[in-house]
Write a structure and sequence with these properties.
By secondary structure, this protein is of the alpha+beta class. The chain has 2 domains: 1-15 and 45-184, no CATH class; 215-356, L,D-transpeptidase catalytic domain-like (Beta Barrel). It contains 10 helices and 16 strands. The strands form 5 sheets. Strands 9-8-7-16-10-13-14-15 form an 8-stranded mixed sheet, sandwiched between helices. The longest helix is centred in the first third of the chain and has 14 residues, at 74-87.
């Protein structure tokens, strides 16, 4: 398979909502490099070096900030609060001296230089990506739009942040070397994972060695999914045991609210197709036809579906990681693709879940 080398600037033009990456030129086409780029961590860069390093370390510790981009946001604040709680620090949500010290104890540099391989940037790609279900149903796979989008998710970041790290005139393709967030796992021994799960764990740089959780708590108030080790709190009391991980989550909407109470997550499906049923979507006419939509990272449920005992509800991935915790969903619980895969490694099917307001 031929892998084209393109300037990052060609691939990183995003829509105002950040949802679509534009393929601005044919493969192999070169454009004039954009001026004004400032190296990350220096004055004028869109990446705050200290925040970026903290996000990498929080991700490595299991307290996901969502997209690693070196910018402040609600998901980063929640990740810091979760990390502080787990480490017995004062819970402020601020990157204070004690929190920085605890994070830096992991001795992990913020970035890593990666010589790109077909696993990093190989296709096939889906461009243009249809937006209408009837058009999506005609596809075999809902793949990434281009190399940069795939690479960004693999390294838990955004296409824009990859450009911010490397400059818009840097080329992308097999054999090229790029600076990327240091989320490279220490182990890829995915013993116990099934034949669909294991390749996805590797594709999203999920470390094989994960702490094993006993139950989760999804909190609507701060849009987090917390993983605990210990006895499930079946009564009205708060979580018991040790907090070992936390992920930002989209939890529903006013029309499809989070179903509060106690549930179980029974079965997992990886790269699942999606049964699109208009009658389950309040913003879609019931007269629309049902469709079976193809699987893929840009499918409606991303790369994994962890099925809940409540009908039509599950914990799943997303084609838009930058929107996690910032927009509404149709009732289900949505994580980034890399976080839902990590959760699938930490929890065994049949685990209990408590949803609180």
């Amino acid at each position: 398979m031929r892998h084209h080398k393109l300037f990052l600037s060609i691939l990183a033009s995003a829509s105002a909502a950040g949802a679509a990456i534009a393929q601005g030129a044919a493969p192999g086409t070169e454009t004039q490099p954009q001026s004004g780029w400032v190296a990350p961590g220096t004055p004028g860069s869109r990446i705050d070096g200290e925040l970026f390093h903290a996000q990498v370390l929080l991700d490595a510790a299991g307290f996901s900030p969502g997209v690693i981009d070196g910018r402040e946001g609600s998901s980063q604040t929640a990740a810091i609060r979760g990390f502080q709680q787990a480490k017995g620090l004062e819970v402020t949500g601020e990157l204070d001296a004690r929190t920085r010290q605890a994070l830096l104890g992991m001795s992990r540099p913020s970035t890593v230089m990666v010589k790109l391989t077909p696993e990093d940037v190989g296709g096939p790609f889906t461009y243009p990506l249809p937006t209408k279900p009837e058009q999506q149903a005609e596809l075999d796979f809902m793949g990434y739009r281009n190399m940069l989008e795939k690479l960004a998710e693999r390294y838990h970041t955004s296409p824009e942040a990859v450009v911010d790290l490397n400059g818009p005139d840097k080329r992308i393709g097999v054999g090229q070397v790029l600076r990327l967030p240091n989320v490279v796992p220490a182990s890829r021994d995915y013993s116990g994972a099934n034949e669909k799960q294991a390749p996805l764990l590797g594709a999203f740089n999920v470390d094989a060695d994960q702490p094993q959780g006993d139950y989760i708590v999804v909190d609507k108030s701060d849009r987090t999914l917390k993983v605990y080790k210990g006895e499930f709190p079946s009564g009205a009391g708060g979580p018991q045991g040790q907090l070992i991980a936390q992920f930002p989550v989209t939890t529903g909407s006013s029309r499809d609210p989070l179903p509060l109470g106690n549930w179980k997550v029974t079965t997992y499906a990886f790269l699942p197709p999606f049964h699109y049923q208009p009658d389950l979507f309040w913003d879609v006419s019931d007269e629309k036809e049902e469709h079976k939509l193809p699987p893929g990272p840009n499918g409606l449920v991303g790369v994994a579906w962890l099925d809940l005992t409540k009908d039509h509800y599950g914990i799943h991935g997303t084609p838009e990681p930058q929107l996690i915790g910032k927009t509404e969903s149709h009732g289900c619980l949505r994580l980034t693709n890399w976080d839902v895969m990590r959760l699938s490694r930490m929890m065994k099917p049949g685990f209990q879940a408590k949803f609180v307001a």
